[in-house]
Amino acid sequence: MGYIDAHTHIVFKETITEELMNFALREWGAPREALTMSVKDVVEILDDANIDYVGVMAYPSRKLGIAREDYAIKVVNAVRDYADRFAIIGGVEANELTIEETRYWLEKQYEAGISAIKVHPPHMWLKPNAYRPEEGGLKQLELIYQFAEDHGLPVYIHTGTSAFSRARNKYGDPIFVDDVAVDFPRLTIIMSHVGRPNWVATAFQLIRIRQNIMADLSSIPPRRILDYIPRLIEISDKSIYGSDYPGPGVYDIKANLQAFLNIPIPKEAIKKIVDDNPRKVLKPLSRNR
Prior knowledge:
Strand content: 5-15%
Strand order of the largest sheet: 1-2-3-4-5-6-7-8
Distance between the termini: 22 Å
CATH topology: TIM Barrel
CATH architecture: Alpha-Beta Barrel
Order of helices and strands: EHHEHEHEHHEHEHEHEHH
Radius of gyration: 17 Å
């Protein structure tokens, strides 16, 4: 049995759009060959890396100009022949849609088979708790969390900064995720990037004290992870591995995994992070129906 990479930005030649290609070349610095692989090509790479399945981000961000709500459905359909190798993370841009449109796309993505939902505050330009009356009362965002809670879907919430040119990093503070954890106690919240680099201490504390918040360790270079999170062992029961491949600086999914497997913490803790924990919270497409 292999490993799970719960956070990637893999794109496929079957689904990549011109705007996404241009964005990735310009903002990620990813090599073109990493953006034009077929689904079969990616599966071969996963086989070589001993990765059982990966989480693939397919959320919309009109501000960055990279996707719409139908993108997640296109990705799900593209990988169906390898449904045991992919978990597709969809999303709905709450502050760009009506309540009716939000509900429509949530239902369509769920029917297609998404494994999780992504909320990216710096890319979507909204606070994770913008549904709260004192934060603007965005009912569409409340609907997303309620839908996820009711349908057993985890929600990834980006915390920390984004280097992309149109990102608004004031929305990356993980303290706003605390409201979500309190207001939706049955919701599994996956806190992406653990607030790095500015808010790691805040994120770490919330992961410790809130039962329904987990840590997604993606985008932190494995050689630096204990610099950022020296007490990682304390949250190893609540952490999942992700590479962020082929995001900025991560151009070899196998090498990133191998580096993580060699960080100096007990092997039992590493196995929880790269195997046991992600299997519990993120199911591949083949197990969603």
